[in-house]
Amino acid sequence: MNIVECDSGLPALRLEPQTAAHAEEMFAVLSDPAIYEFENDPPESLEWLRSRFARLESRQSGDGGEGWLNWVIRFASGDPVGFVQATVRSDGCASVAYVLNSAYWGRGIASRAVRCMISELVGTYGVRRLEAVLKRENRRSMRLLERLGFANAPPDTDAFRALEQDEIAMVLELGNVDV
Ligand SMILES: CC(C)(COP(=O)(O)OP(=O)(O)OC[C@H]1O[C@@H](n2cnc3c(N)ncnc32)[C@H](O)[C@@H]1OP(=O)(O)O)[C@@H](O)C(=O)NCCC(=O)NCCS
User: Fold this and answer.
1) Which of 31, 101, 113, 136 has the greatest number of beta carbons closer than 10 A?
2) Measured in angstroms, how far is the CA atom of residue 20 from the centroid of ligand 1?
């Protein structure tokens, strides 16, 4: 898994393959309650987060069928701001997720980081199709995906069929998109 330098825009961003060694600084980043307005909960403790990050260092599902890729988003100047995540399947499809501390929302940083991850997914992992599942009320996340060219998943797709009632799925076919 590569360190990815996100070339376009300022401040400069870098994606670092996430390891247990990131737990301490990411515990502070991820303890922001604003992140969990729609789903999930803050890390229970630093130890909990460290062991989670350690498990994720395998970079794959238990059966080895999926790539589980997590990168810490960091300003090149030093501070960590959040993470981006991709679950990569052998059919060239990846599910993506992204979380930033709210101190860094509203500046286009998340969009840049996700676009940068998508370039890496395409170039290094051969991904051709992206999916994201989000809570219907998570307008910030929806706007981010729309900016990147995602559209609502058609009802006949797996992503659509697996949804909870309060969720939507969005997809981006990369065949005709310049990333
Ligand atoms: C979802 C999340 C990553 C979106 O963050 P964000 O900062 O709103 O996303 P972006 O980086 O695309 O920034 C967009 C905002 O920055 C503004 N902006 C400023 N400069 C910009 C630029 N150069 N490019 C794009 N947008 C820019 C946009 O106008 C937009 O503002 P708006 O919110 O008023 O519409 C963030 O809200 C988050 O971490 N939420 C908690 C976790 C979560 O819900 N994750 C998603 C689960 S599916």
Assistant:
1) 113
2) 27
pTM for the structure as a whole:
0.95
For residue 159, pLDDT over 90 is answered with: no
Q: What is the predicted pLDDT for the residue at 178?
A: 55
Q: Are 134 and 168 in contact (CB under 8 A)?
A: yes
Crossing angle for the helix pair 46-56 and 23-30, to the nearest 10 degrees:
120
Closest alpha carbon to 91 in 140, 125, 64: 125
Q: Which residues, 6 or more positions from 70, have their beta carbon under 8 angstroms from its beta carbon? A: 17, 18, 56, 83, 84, 85
Is 144 a pocket residue for ligand 1 (Cβ < 6 Å)? yes
Determine the atom of ligand 1 nearest the C-alpha atom of 133.
48
Cα(160) to centroid(ligand 1), Å: 24
Say how many Å lie between the CA of residue 63 and the centre of ligand 1: 34
Strand partners, 115: none
d(CA 169, CA 157): 10
Confidence of residue 177 (pLDDT cuts 50, 70, 90): low
